[in-house]
């Protein structure tokens, strides 16, 4: 086995993180909100360190419905301000990350005479709220046009439908793009580095202690402001400061199933505006597969690796069968994944599907800044608001936000000559395609190549089989069984790149196989 030829980026980040300095901002959490906050701070010229306990977007931020959207159902709930803000951010994100975000048509099929005009009116308001950043105007389509766009729609009693447009993206790839953007602007981020305690001086939170999971060593870092952006785990960090603090969150679980593209072969997604439990359901083409979801199940406790409940999968498949023909069955599910929503507590008796998706910032008596709630689409605005509060509290020099017009790392117009899985790298794709193994597939049922594993280790802080197969590549979500079969080769490449031994390889394959088994629908 050859040792790695270059200093891997995590080793460099660990060296920087443990340097003797006081950071302007310490951000705990490497999901959408934490990365957005860190990029916001770094682009203003503040020194920033981000610590992530597992891997970037390990939790909720890699388990979304893959939509950059205003939220049609939030409009139905009357939350116009959230929808307007989200639609504005949707437009900015498409401009700033064109390699990751693209327009997608969504068809609301009408099976009753009143459905098309009813939903059409609401979606015209959706268009208006987007203003000059609107993607394309919604419009009525007749029965023949609906079937042309979505041939597998159930034909009986179909009257037509409404076609509207929203954005689609790859959530974990956006997280990695934000990581690279942060590094481009002088920020430091470290994964596999859980915070194990907060440092307080005179009752003020002035830093944190973290453990490097690769060495087991603990380190202390100091900062002028500390941001808790750990998603569904914010209450755990808040309890590090005050064990008696009241919980902020009422977490709920959303489940998705992934099936083959043949169940939705047209060029549009399908949106079911009202399911039996009052939610919306999406069937969305994604990386030549189809993502169907989601559910909303209140959970009494959080888990770093949530699992779909049998009744959630049953609900998704049953609802899909009301609209698609042929409809996917359990045997057709390539992967099933669950994510937890960090919903901020409301009054007693409020169900989780009606809780606000607005973000919330709270500052404790000791100065710990907690950011939670929100959604991927508004990550940039969440970061801007948080850094404004942090800068004021820490007495940092006031500087204007630049992120509304900031092109993210690799930003480039999509190259239609490249396969879909190369698009997400933007300008980095050419560098990856020059690496060994660029034409060697990892698995016949997956689009990825060996070169992408090398790039993940050399440029994107990938440390484990899961880091690569779940988030740098999306193999775990596209086809869990195929990802398990690809794991030994992925681990062998990682071992070569990172200088690991045979015992590490064997442990990695076993760990990944056990984890990925939870994504297989038996």
- Termini separation comes to 37 Å
Catalogue the unreliable spans.
1-5, 347-352
- For the record, the count of structural domains works out to 3
Shape: globular
CATH class of the largest domain: Alpha Beta
Biggest sheet, in brief? Answer: 10 strands, mixed
CATH architecture of the largest domain, by name, is 3-Layer(bba) Sandwich
CATH fold call of the largest domain: FAD/NAD(P)-binding domain
Number of helices: 17
> What structural category arises from helix and sheet content?
alpha+beta
* SS strand fraction: 15-25%
Radius of gyration: 22 Å
Mean pLDDT: 94
Relevant CATH superfamily of the largest domain: FAD/NAD(P)-binding domain
Give the % helix.
25-40%
According to DSSP, the number of beta strands is 18
Family: Belongs to the FAD-dependent glycerol-3-phosphate dehydrogenase family.
Keywords: FAD, Flavoprotein, Glycerol metabolism, Oxidoreductase
Cofactor: FAD
Pfam family, one: DAO_C
What does this protein structure show overall?
There is one protein chain. The chain is of the alpha+beta class and 522 residues long. It folds into three domains: 9-60 and 173-248 and 348-405, FAD/NAD(P)-binding domain, CATH 3.50.50; 101-167 and 250-344, 2-Layer Sandwich (D-Amino Acid Oxidase, Chain A, domain 2), CATH 3.30.9.10; 423-518, Helicase, Ruva Protein, domain 3, CATH 1.10.8.870. The chain contains 17 helices and 18 strands. The strands form two sheets. Strands 3, 4, 5, 6, 11, 12, 13, 14, 15 and 16 form a ten-stranded mixed beta sheet that branches. Strands 1, 2, 7, 8, 9, 10, 17 and 18 form an eight-stranded mixed beta sheet that branches. The longest helix has 19 residues, at 480-498. The two termini are 37 Å apart.
């Amino acid at each position: 086995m050859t040792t790695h030829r270059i200093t891997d980026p995590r080793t460099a980040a660990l060296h920087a993180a443990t340097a003797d300095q006081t950071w302007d901002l310490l951000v705990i959490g490497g999901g959408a909100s934490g990365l957005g906050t860190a990029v916001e701070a770094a682009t203003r010229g503040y020194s920033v360190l981000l610590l992530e306990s597992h891997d970037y977007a390990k939790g909720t931020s890699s388990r979304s419905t893959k939509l950059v959207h205003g939220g049609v159902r939030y409009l139905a709930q009357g939350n116009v301000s959230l929808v307007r803000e989200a639609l504005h951010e949707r437009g900015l994100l498409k401009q700033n990350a064109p390699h990751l975000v693209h327009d997608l048509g969504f068809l609301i099929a009408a099976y009753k005479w009143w459905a098309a005009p009813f939903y059409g009116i609401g979606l015209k308001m959706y268009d208006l709220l987007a203003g000059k950043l609107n993607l394309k105007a919604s419009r009525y389509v007749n029965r023949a046009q609906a079937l042309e766009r979505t041939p597998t729609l159930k034909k009986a009693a179909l009257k037509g439908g409404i076609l509207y447009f929203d954005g689609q993206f790859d959530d974990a790839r956006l997280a990695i793009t934000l990581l690279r953007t942060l590094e481009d602007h002088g920020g430091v981020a470290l994964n596999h580095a859980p915070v194990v305690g907060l440092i307080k001086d005179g009752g003020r939170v002035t830093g944190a202690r973290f453990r490097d999971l690769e060495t087991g060593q603990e380190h202390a870092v100091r900062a002028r402001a500390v941001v808790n952006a750990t998603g569904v785990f914010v209450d755990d960090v808040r309890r590090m400061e005050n064990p008696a603090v009241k919980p902020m969150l009422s977490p709920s679980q959303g489940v998705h199933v992934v099936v083959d593209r043949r169940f939705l072969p047209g060029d549009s997604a399908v949106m079911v505006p009202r399911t039996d439990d009052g939610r919306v359901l999406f069937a969305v083409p994604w990386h030549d597969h189809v993502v169907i979801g989601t559910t909303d199940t209140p959970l009494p406790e959080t888990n770093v690796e949530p699992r779909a409940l049998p009744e959630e999968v049953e609900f998704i498949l049953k609802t899909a069968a009301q609209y698609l023909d042929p409809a996917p069955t359990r045997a057709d599910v390539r992967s099933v994944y669950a994510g937890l929503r960090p919903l901020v507590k409301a009054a007693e008796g409020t169900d989780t599907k009606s809780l606000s998706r607005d973000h919330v910032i709270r500052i404790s008596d000791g100065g710990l800044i907690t950011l939670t709630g929100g959604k991927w689409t508004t990550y940039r605005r969440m970061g801007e608001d948080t850094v404004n509060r942090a800068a004021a509290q820490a007495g940092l020099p006031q500087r204007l936000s630049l992120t509304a017009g900031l092109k993210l790392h690799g930003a480039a117009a999509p190259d239609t000559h490249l396969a879909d899985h190369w698009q997400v790298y933007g300008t980095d794709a050419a560098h990856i395609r020059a690496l060994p193994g660029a034409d060697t597939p990892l698995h016949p049922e997956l689009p990825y190549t060996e070169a992408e594993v090398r790039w993940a280790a050399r440029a994107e802080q990938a440390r484990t089989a899961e880091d690569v197969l779940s988030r740098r590549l999306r193999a775990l979500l596209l086809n869990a069984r195929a990802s398990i079969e690809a794991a030994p080769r992925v681990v062998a490449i990682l071992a070569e790149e990172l200088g690991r031994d045979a015992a590490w390889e064997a442990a990695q394959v076993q760990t990944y196989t056990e984890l990925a088994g939870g994504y297989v629908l038996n």
